Amino acid sequence: MSKFLNYLGGVIGGFSLIYIPVSGLLPSLEPLIDAVGIIIVIVFAVALIITGVRSLLSKA
Fold first, then answer.
1. Is 58 helix (H, G, I), strand (E, B) or coil?
2. pLDDT confidence of residue 21
3. What is the pLDDT averaged over residues 3-28?
């Protein structure tokens, strides 16, 4: 359960990086922050999927 919450927190953190308003604070970094957020969401979503599949296969 702890891994699940950690991965879920990573996904939420990635979404927060995507939606963070940077218009007043270094607007030139907005594409970089968006790219990092997208990569974080993808990595943690894949980790969640792999953990879920491994959990299902171990209970079968």
1. helix
2. 86
3. 89
Domain ranges of the chain: 2-59
| Spacing of C-alpha 29 from chain mean position | 19
CA distance 28 to 33: 10
Half-sphere CA count of 12, side-chain side, radius 13 A = 6
| Contact predicate 48/4, CB 8 Å | yes
- Write down the pTM of the prediction: 0.84
Only one residue has tokens 């919450």, namely: 5
Q: How far apart are CA 32 and CA 40, in angstroms?
A: 12
**Hey, what amino acid is at 30?**
E
